[in-house]
Structure formats: C-alpha cells, structure tokens
Specification:
Elements lengths: L2 H34 L5 H4 L4 H11 L2 E6 L13 E2 L13 E5 L4 E6 L8 E8 L8 E2 L3 E7 L4 E3 L9 H12 L9 H7 L7
Parallel strand pairs: 2-6
Antiparallel strand pairs: 1-3, 3-4, 4-5, 5-7, 7-8
Helix pairs in contact: 4-5
Length: 198
C-alpha cells in the first residue's frame, strides 16, 4: 500500500467510527424515548411535531451550539457541500432545526408526517465533524431517517429495516450519481457491515 492509500483508509475509518458512534447514540435515544413514555413506537411516545422532535434532540444529546433555524455555523454554508463526484454547491441542508453536539457532529432535523415519507417520523441531516471539511455526502455527511419503530435507517428507505436490494438501489441511483439527491450512502455502509467501500 502507498502512503496516500493508507491515509485514505485511515480517514475513511475515522469517519466510520464517528458515524457509528452517533448512530448508536441515536438508536439508544429512540429506545429510551419509547421506554420512558411506555410506548410501542415513536408517535405513540409523543414524537408528533417539530416541537416534539426539537425536545427529543435537545433532551437526549449534549448540545454545545443551538443554531435555531439557521444551518450556519452548525453546518458549513450549503455552497461548500458536494457529493462524491460533483462540484461544491450541489447538495445542502434545509431542515427546521440545527445543533452541534459535544462530539462535534452537527444535526439538521425536521419532523415528517404523511404517506409520502413512508414510516419515517424524522429526517436527520448529519455532518459528523460539523462545518469542517471535506463536507462530502457519503464521507462526512449523511441523511438518516428516524422511523416510527425507533430504528435509524437510510433516509431514502420507506420502512425499516430496509432490504439490501433497496439500499443498493438508493446508493446507485443517488449516492454515486450526479443528481442533487444525496441519499443512499448510509444504506450502502449498513449493507457493507459498517465499511466505506466506495
């Protein structure tokens, strides 16, 4: 292996470690939320509005910066985000609430309601190292879906757990394509047993 490829492997592993840590914290938070509210799903537990989601995030994570409805400075400006194979400015976040966690990760989040979202109750745009680069969807930036059953899954999926086939399709159609949709990368990581093979 060459030094550059060793550095790339190290960087990918660093991103995966942080992503896995925040994913586990989210899973624990949804389980705790349902248990604390003696409920069988997130809606029954009370996750039924943007205000309820805001309370869920702020009561389950150590927040070091609350950016309110503005993405900056929790996230870099949208003009600095891109996909793996596109130029900066091709993707960005537009959620209703933005925070930076003590871990350095930033969340942009919004409540979801309606058949068009399938079983999702919330969207979380996550930059695992906040506004720091590289700000590339699929490297340090991911879109996660919080599902009514409490699972955290690829946002593009309609239910959780998603099938390997659905995740692969979302990856091919969105993550590595040149369109402006930046879903699909997280599902590929789940399919590949927490490896970044792309």
């Amino acid at each position: 292996m060459t030094v550059p490829s060793l550095m790339q492997n190290y960087q990918r592993q660093s991103y995966l470690t942080q992503l896995h840590k925040v994913y586990n914290e989210l899973m624990q938070a949804t389980e705790r939320y349902m248990t604390d509210n003696n409920a069988v799903n997130m809606k029954e537990a009370g996750l039924s509005s943007d205000a309820a989601l805001d309370n869920f995030i702020k009561s389950n994570f150590k927040i070091v910066q609350d950016c309110g409805a503005k993405s900056t400075p929790c996230f870099a400006p949208n003009s600095q985000y891109r996909k793996i194979n596109t130029s900066p400015g091709t993707v960005g976040t537009g959620q209703k609430g933005f925070v930076t966690l003590a871990s350095g990760a930033s969340f942009g989040y919004g409540y979801l309601n309606g058949a068009v979202y399938g079983e999702k109750v919330a969207i979380i745009d996550m930059d695992i190292n906040g506004p720091k680069g590289p700000n590339i969807a699929g490297r340090d930036v991911f879109i996660l879906g919080v599902f009514n059953n409490g699972m955290i899954e690829e946002y593009g999926a309609m239910s959780a757990p998603a099938s390997a086939e659905e995740r692969d399709k979302l990856y091919n159609d969105n993550c590595i394509s040149t369109n402006t949709n930046w879903t699909g990368c997280f599902g590929k990581i789940l399919n590949d047993n927490w490896q970044m093979t792309y």
